[in-house]
Amino acid sequence: MNLNVAYPTPAYAKLELAEVRRRIKAAKAILGNRLLILGHHYQVDEVIEHADIVGDSLQLSRAAAATNAELIVFCGVHFMAETADLLTAPHQQVFLPNIDAGCSLADMADIAKVTLAWRTLIDEWGEQIVPITYINSAIELKAFCGEHGGAVCTSSNAAAVLNWAWQRQPRVFFFPDQHLGRNTAYRQGLSLEQMVLYSQEQIASKIGPDVKLILWNGHCCVHQEFRITFYQQLKQQRPEVKIIVHPECNFELARLADFMGSTEYIIKTIKAAATGTSWAVATEVNLVKRLQQQRPDLEIILPSDYDPRCRTMAMITPVHLLFQLENLVQGHYINRVVVPEKLRQPALLAVNRMLELTR
User: Fold this and answer.
1) How confident is the model at residue 74 (pLDDT cuts 50, 70, 90)?
2) Are 271 and 237 contained in the same domain?
3) How many domains does the chain have?
């Protein structure tokens, strides 16, 4: 739920970047400790420079919950702001500077379609299935998992959450990212024959008794588009280059990679890499460029025939951030993101099940 939606006026769009920077700093000074700005790794540098904390989605939400700041400005996308509102205290309010900054992956699974699929699966197997949703999903799906004995997962703890689910029931219904589910389960020892991409039309013929993982047909528009041919050629021409990928990449590339892990895993691996080594990094371009700046002693390359940029994340600009902050200074609480009360407890239950596994 979004309250008092507003967008920058034409006067803001005419501002030079230097003026935007100056006014953001002035607004931050006025708001002081009341304010906390969160910046996701995929944001542009011109936004990141104003963030108090930079991190991945769940990491940022938990960091906000650990503070007393009452005004949380989340420079990310919509599901991240929802998660932050879910985890923070009642006196803390969460704002998304551009309310249109969504996530195409999260949008690929809506509650109506997932509920219909769930009923079909229950008709097939009874209660022998656990729903797991990636944190990159709408709050309705998190609540759905809480209500049906399931949990949330992140790209870093998906393996632990899947194992938890399989200890309870023989099958898992995983949404919305098919690649994260497939890549994680394969590395856990499942064969491709034990996984199936859900299809409402062919449910009976496609899902056999040996299937342990039913995958939703969703994907990240950034990570899915990395082409394996570039990396195959790279491996042939320069076998010394280490390939590291996000688990939202397609299966063929993930299987070829030397390393696979979450955004935080990629960052930690690159930061710990030996001087002079070469790395091909398959993830969002703003993060890769930032890693190149931070480790000039490494060769960090992004072999790709397209621009791997999260365009919904890019919808939050320095101008949007300035407009948000100056409205807060004036007492105008625009673009607030609030989890509906009826969804809060079941969604929190699903998140807490995950957190109990990864403390």
Assistant:
1) very high
2) yes
3) 3
Pair 255, 182 in one domain: no
Q: Three-state DSSP class for 307?
A: coil
On whether residue 142 sits in a domain, the answer given is yes
Are residues 117 and 200 in contact, defined by beta-carbon separation less than 8 angstroms?
yes
CATH number at residue 56: 3.40.50.10800
Cα end-to-end span (Å), the chain: 30
Q: Is the pLDDT of residue 293 over 80?
A: yes
Q: State the pLDDT confidence band at 357, using cuts at 50, 70 and 90.
A: confident
Residues 321 and 245 in one domain: no
This model's pTM is above 0.90: yes
Contact between 299 and 279 under an 8 Å Cβ cutoff? The reply is: yes
pLDDT-based confidence at 24, cuts 50/70/90? very high
Residue 46 CA to residue 106 CA, distance in Å, equals 26
pLDDT tens by residue, 86-143: 999 999 999 999 999 999 999 999 999 999 999 989 988 888 999 999 999 999 999 9
> Number of helices and strands (H, E) in the chain?
17, 15
Q: How does 198-232 read in b/e, with b if 16+ C-beta sit within 10 Å?
A: beeeebeeebeeebbbbbbebbbbbbbbbbbebbe
Which H/E stretch holds residue 60? Answer: helix 57-65
Tokens 């079941």 — which residue?
A: 346
Q: Which of 54, 107, 64, 58 is nearest to 88 (CA)?
A: 64
Buried b (16+ CB within 10 A) or exposed e, 110-139: eeeebeebbeebeeeeeeebbbbbbbbbbb
CA 342 from chain center: how many Å? Answer: 24
Distance CA 109, CA 117 (A): 11
pLDDT in tens, 214-263: 999 999 999 998 989 999 999 999 999 999 999 999 999 999 999 999 99
Residue 356 lies in a domain: no
Q: Which range of residues forms the domain containing residue 212?
A: 106-220
In a domain, 357, yes or no: no
